[in-house]
Design goal:
This is Prephenate dehydrogenase. It comes from Lacimicrobium alkaliphilum. This protein has 3 helices and no strands. It is an all-alpha fold. The radius of gyration is 15 Å and the shape is elongated.
Amino acid sequence: MQPIIDKLKENMQLIYRRALDADNALARLQQSGKGKFKHVFADDAGFVVRSKRFSPYVEELGKQVVELESVQDKAEFETRLAPIVKKMELMLLTLANFQQSLKDK
């Protein structure tokens, strides 16, 4: 299970760095009157938090990864792992799409 945790942490570092850049870009967009939306992810994305920035979503996901690290039961580990991986994929895809949309302008 440790190699999986290590890979999750590696992905979290990548997500964190990209989220900081995206949040800065969102702040600039909103200051110029653009980016008028209520939250980054849809209600059915699996996140509890609702925010106009990526950082709160990263924090929620990071807490889940830390909690997963303490799980010893293999079945429970796998049960908790699936939604974390889904959220990471969604975060990485959304961040990549957002960065690409900034480059296209």
